[in-house]
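Hey, resending since the last one bounced:
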Amino acid sequence: MPVHLAMLLDKIRRSILILLFVFSASLWASMRVAGAVDIADEASLLTFPINLTDDRGRNTHLDHFAKRIISLSPHITELVFAAGAGDKLVGVSRYSDYPAAATAITDVGDSSSLDLERIIALQPDLVIAWRSGNASTDIEKLEKLGITVFVTEASRLEDVPRLLRATGKLAGTLTRAGLAAKTYEEELQRIKLNYGGRHKISVFPLIWHQPLMTVNGNHVISDIIDICGGVNIFASAPSLTPVISAENLLEADPQAVISSVSLEFAETGTKRMLRGFPDLSAVRNNHLFFVHPDLLHRQTVRMLQAAKTVCAKLESVRSGQGRNVFQQGI
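The structure tokens again:
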């Protein structure tokens, strides 16, 4: 091979090696920057102590990220998992069955019978409670024992991403919690855009049958009805979950009934009970619908599944295609 050709090939090889080195260095730097962004996202809250105001208006103080969390409601358990902190749960409220991993965590009782001794033995550094579901006396007992309690309440769909981010901040999983919150907010916005401005439908949200119980306008179920273009006929009731009389229901005469009574009662009991109100518009027109209580009652990201189901049911009322019913809204 001529000397000049060999020199040319050697020069080309060196140029290629230099280009490969520069490309590799650039790629590695960009990966490090991307990683640094993720770390910085978490590290932005590494200024301790952490102070957050809960839904009682009280300050929650932590000197470090929570490592041992107890949930006092099934929906809170689900939110903790959604916020990426499920592995930090050491105790959960009875009936915490979603996700499946929650069933393997120690049961600390339910809202009416918390096992305070077990909670103390688990040595939590954070207990997350439900303002309208847990007794204030139980929360006070825990706090008197020196346990940090963060009390939550979601009365609007927009509260779910707020609580996800708060959980992520307390548990040190803000990146994952923020992603879950953003995904939720984008889906909620799509639902609002799809059903905003629709013709209003009067709705009776039935949450229990003996006695008849519903929700007022401060309940998140009412918010779901609202974004679907419905009107909760008992929105102005003074209590969150009022008991109503047959006369109240007949006078309000809803166009649709959204039942979330327990699965055991849904298919037969509710249907049979509503036959006792033949003069209701909803009964005459077969606008009687069932939505799974785990979706409609639990203040979690799965409420958007409930919202889609409710919106579709009310749309069927508008189009005159309401069908009888009591098909599980999954």
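Residues 198-318 form a domain with the Rossmann fold fold (CATH 3.40.50.1980).

Sorry for the duplicate.
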